[in-house]
Amino acid sequence: MAVVDFLMKNHKVNLMFFDHGTETSREALEFLKDKYLQSIEFGRMSLDIGGLTNSKAKSDSWEEYWRTQRYEWFHSYYPHPIITCHHLDDCVETWIFNSLNGNGRIIPYSHRNVIRPFRLNQKSEFTNWCRNNNVPWIEDSSNQDTKYMRNFIRHEIVPKALVVNPGLHKVIRKKVLEDCCIV
After folding, report:
1. Structure pTM?
2. Is the Cβ–Cβ distance between 153 and 97 less than 8 Å?
3. Strands across the sheet with 114-115, in order?
4. CATH code for the domain in which residue 147 is found
5. Which three-class secondary structure state does DSSP give residue 128?
6. Do 104 and 95 meet the contact criterion of CB atoms below 8 Å apart?
7. CA 165 to each of CA 55, 91, 158: distance values in angstroms, whole numbers, following the listed order
8. Where in the sequence is the domain holding 164, given as residue range(s)?
9. What is the per-residue pLDDT across 79-92, written as a single tens digit (0 to 9) for each?
10. Phi first, then psi: what are they for 177, rounded to 5°?
């Protein structure tokens, strides 16, 4: 919501929403429609809605299934750029997950037409933007469910990793900068 608010100040925004077929996803979609109805009606914004098109393979986790479906939809807009709000906390979680699976990589800046320009910003910066600019947002309640590996890492492993290395975000920020060839 912070990024949409920021971009709408100077740009016409084409908002994209991927419905993961869950109750929380449907609630988020209704929230977006309610929040931006006037902007959509007056042509200051458009809203494209995608959703699941294939069945989940038994060997895929729900997270992998949703990610694959979402990116197939994003890539269907190629070559038009799509900006996501992946942030530094996402990069930390991804690096931990990948490191534990033998490949300590971070979320790349881009993949085909998907661009992630906010990887140097912590999530708290976005929530602060929303608070300071009276921008409402919702939290996906499923983000608390540690049966999903990303959430387990976020709630169980990251706090312990920060005890071992309180500068973990700084370490991953450096990796993000290296990925961008800035260092």
Report:
1. 0.91
2. yes
3. 82-83, 114-115, 110-111
4. 3.40.50.620
5. helix
6. yes
7. 41, 16, 10
8. 2-179
9. 999 999 999 999 99
10. -65, -40
